[in-house]
Amino acid sequence: MKIVVCVKQVPDTAEADVKLGSDGRGIEMEGLPLQINESDNYALEESLLIKEDRDGEVTVITLGPESADEVLRMSMAKGADEAVRLADPALEGGDAWAVALALAKAIGGMEYDLVLTGCMASDDGMTQVGVTLAEMLGVPHATYVTEMEIGDGSVTVGRELEGGLVERVEMSLPAVVTIQTGINEPRYASIMGIAKAAKREIHTKSAADLCLDAGEAGEAGSRTKLLKLDYPPAGEGAEILDGTPSEASAKLANVLKEKGFA
Amino acid sequence: MNDVLVLAEHLNGELKDVTFEMLTHARVLADAGGAKVAAVLFGSGVGDLAEKLTAEADEVLVRDHDGFANYNSAVYQPVLADVIRGREPSVVMIGHTAFGVDLAPSLSVALDAPLATDLIDLAVEGTDLVATRQTHGGKVNERVGFGDAAVRLVTVRPAAFAPQAGSRGGSVIALDTDVPQEPAFRRFVEYVEAAAGDVDITKSDVVIAIGRGIKEEENLAMINEFAELLGGVVACSRPVVDAGWLPKDRQVGSSGKTVKPKLYVAIGVSGQFQHVAGMKSAETIVAINKDPKAPIFQAAHFGIVGDLMKVVPALTEKITELRA
Ligand SMILES: Cc1cc2nc3c(=O)[nH]c(=O)nc-3n(C[C@H](O)[C@H](O)[C@H](O)COP(=O)(O)OP(=O)(O)OC[C@H]3O[C@@H](n4cnc5c(N)ncnc54)[C@H](O)[C@@H]3O)c2cc1C
Ligand SMILES: Nc1ncnc2c1ncn2[C@@H]1O[C@H](COP(=O)(O)O)[C@@H](O)[C@H]1O
What's the whole-model pTM score? Predict the structure, then answer.
């Protein structure tokens, strides 16, 4: 069973004060920790579980700058067999369409039974690349998957809908499945694995290798046009109870008492 | 401007809220552009839903067919693509739901049309439409255009627009577009309802919710003590369930439960829209978070900016003192 996993390196902004770059088209990355996108980590783990369960080969692929090699190496340290980076400045700055097209060109040239992606990248939040990729590859897809069982030439998945309702769907292989968090318990890489992965080769591909011409790659190849980034307008917002933890807590305790909760 | 087309989403015989929210905004766009609003309704035995939509749209395009008894993007996509090719709407609005994200990107490829997802706004600006969406967990707003595309596809974030009842008196038009057989490559199997757990968080007047900011499972003890003091139940965001610290039936949000307690205290929760969707109607919302820019402070009525490891014990102490 040959599995391709699409992984993206993203900045962790959960606790960060995000600053916009001066051109208003990106954020300042300096000081932000970089990591594998959360749902991609679950997708990787799912591929490794399948590999362990039945003979399999896992290839991780990313489109991104050199720093993204770190995500590929960590994936190999956990057990991925091959790693590919679509490494070309011409490929960067694209929308979901352009990213999916580059991935489709690369994956379309490989042998594969299953492609796993995360359901959503936490930085741009598009929730779009996986299904776009499936359609470009001409294979079936299912999104938001929290259960997966491989059959004979088929895969049965549970898609998580609103309110915790699960829709079970059966698809023929090859297929693209977008993985939702919580489907498994991602492992940590071992020290040995990390040491070994440091020496492994990462295959790189340029736009030309993918037979993409300038109009099809990156920003030029995008169907949507990024106009500008802004900070969200400050809404009404909460009344902030300030002071030391003890002072703020005293204020909140009084509010709760007034409202009959304390 | 051509039509604004809205795909009506429904489940178990009920139209989803997002359908009405999209139609409300579609009317604003259509009025600004001198265009019509058309709702597209696919389903099996959906006559009464079509009737309901006549108030909301100028035209209700209905394809009532067995093939739509269950949702399958592989069945929806070609039929909707045909309708769109036939009518060339300026915009097609689809909910940013589990159903919409499964459908819209494949439609975009089939039609070679641009798609902007998870919109919180869409406005006519000059001759273009400009979408606003959020990135980086709600800390950045991104404005996106569609170039010179004739047909623009968007998915719309649930609850981004406040629904208002329409009074369009639209006509119901039965479509005769071919509906393909469910393909062998993707078959619907069944729906599985979430199992009920030991505690029903939707029944409690006080809900104390923790997020990833809690950092370690051990810190739950402090939260349990605080919840007990207020007579509340402990709920959480999705990462807490993913980590296995609390069961799935404690999860608040779009893929968890919707709660409307009198008091909701969010502790170490950033306030992504998928979480806020499940608690925004609580009467009083309190947020404790060390990041002053956390989106949860936009949803909350009262906030403390600080380290939960210090604030929660202090708060427990102050409330105990007040009671003494
Ligand atoms: C299809 C889909 C469905 C989803 N459904 C849901 C859902 O139903 N419910 C849900 O919750 N999520 C859901 N999510 C996930 C959602 O997008 C967010 O990832 C999630 O809500 C984030 O959880 P969090 O706020 O706990 O974690 P984070 O976003 O990581 O935030 C942690 C917060 O803790 C704060 N913090 C850290 N340390 C401290 C400290 N010491 N003191 C005080 N504050 C601290 C940080 O400042 C930060 O704001 C869904 C996602 C998808 C794609
Ligand atoms: N640059 C990229 N490289 C590899 N995979 C990606 C990239 N961008 C998105 N993906 C994959 O597509 C999923 C959905 O991303 P998005 O549609 O951007 O929210 C991610 O979870 C990844 O698995």
Answer: 0.97
